[in-house]
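Supplementary Methods. Inverse-folding protocol.

Structures were first reduced to a discrete structure-token string of length 367. This string, shown here, constituted the complete conditioning input.
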């Protein structure tokens, strides 16, 4: 039985603002997707380094500034990987154990945007979970200062005046959900602690329905263990609850630049972590259709959500903003070890039980 979850999920926009106040540095706020057209910068992937194992490659196709088509060979890689233990239990009474291993389908591409490499991965797991992962690597954008000086806005890399400014990598992913059907709703789930708590141990998860676009402009809250749930009220599970998927908001940071800054006005999507909109096929990019030199005054999520449309039992698009505060360290130079940035989507009452119980026992002893 085919049960849809998402119609389309894609990187919508990304921006890299720098926190250094030096004139040459403060103006750095590249929109790597909308301005640089990150897909056109995809690498041709090679076996054994970029991808390992039994690989299916796909070419990427684009057009240049004159409308002429061109092809990037082997731009996308698809393969499977072992993913350690999926589930296990040891029965100490019987002295027996049952273990099943996980595998994940990996769909990836790698783009070089000037000095940085961004490797983008979708991971599809056997239990229905979906992960979006960005692996950031490459070479730092550096600057100069007087030898022996130490900028408060960056990390000195040597004693000759070379330093790398602090910055952020902010991403927004657009997800056109269809959880078991086209009409969905979004709940915010927070951990709450009841006033009547005689044992001082009570805590519970409380759902709150987000009814309109304005109500669904939200931030992460680690103190409340917040996550969001995309549910279908028309489909129920075995305990008569709406089937759902949940968005686990890891790496849920917000833009550090002040609201009056030029980059914040242009990248208002990065001021918040969650946005939910009623589906509109013309609303595709979080910072607007043409962010190159745009002011942010007339396009983007902050403009569309002013309509405050109903988002209960509708065809919905969920936009998640996440990222990395890059406080540079010496170990990031001269080439930066990979840093992982991403989030998870997990079934939450979508199935009536663990959907991987019928997996066969693994008999291989080598990977």
């Amino acid at each position: 039985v085919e049960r849809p979850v998402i119609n389309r999920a894609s990187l919508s926009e990304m921006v890299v603002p720098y926190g250094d106040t030096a004139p040459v540095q403060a103006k750095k706020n590249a929109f790597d997707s909308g301005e640089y057209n990150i897909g056109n910068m995809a690498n041709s992937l090679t076996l054994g380094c970029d991808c390992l194992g039994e690989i299916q490659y796909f070419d990427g196709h684009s057009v240049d500034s004159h409308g002429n088509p061109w092809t990037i060979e082997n731009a996308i890689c698809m393969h499977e990987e072992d993913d350690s233990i999926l589930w296990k239990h040891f029965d100490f009474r019987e002295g027996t154990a049952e273990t099943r291993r996980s595998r994940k389908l990996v769909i990836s591409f790698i783009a070089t945007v000037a000095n940085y490499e961004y490797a983008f991965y979708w991971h599809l797991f056997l239990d229905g979970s979906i992960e979006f992962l960005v692996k950031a690597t490459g070479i730092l954008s550096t600057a100069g200062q007087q030898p022996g000086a130490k900028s408060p806005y960056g990390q000195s890399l040597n004693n000759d005046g070379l330093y790398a400014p602090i910055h952020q990598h902010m991403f927004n992913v657009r997800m056109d959900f269809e959880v078991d059907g086209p009409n969905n709703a979004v709940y915010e789930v927070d951990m709450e602690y009841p006033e009547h708590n005689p044992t001082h141990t009570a805590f519970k998860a409380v759902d709150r329905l987000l009814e309109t676009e304005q109500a669904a402009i939200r931030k992460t809250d680690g103190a409340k263990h917040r996550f969001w749930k995309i549910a279908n009220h028309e489909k129920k599970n075995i305990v008569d609850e709406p089937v759902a998927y949940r968005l686990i908001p890891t790496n849920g940071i917000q833009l550090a630049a002040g609201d009056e800054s030029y980059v914040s006005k242009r990248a208002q999507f990065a001021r918040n972590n969650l946005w939910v909109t009623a589906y509109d096929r013309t609303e595709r990019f979080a910072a607007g259709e043409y962010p190159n030199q745009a002011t942010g005054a007339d396009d983007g999520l902050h403009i569309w959500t002013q309509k405050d449309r109903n988002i209960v039992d509708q065809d919905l698009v969920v936009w998640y903003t996440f990222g990395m505060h890059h406080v540079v360290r010496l170990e990031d130079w001269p080439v930066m070890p990979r840093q992982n940035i991403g989030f998870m989507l997990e079934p939450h009452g979508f199935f009536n039980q663990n959907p991987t119980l019928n997996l066969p026992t693994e008999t291989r002893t080598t990977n």
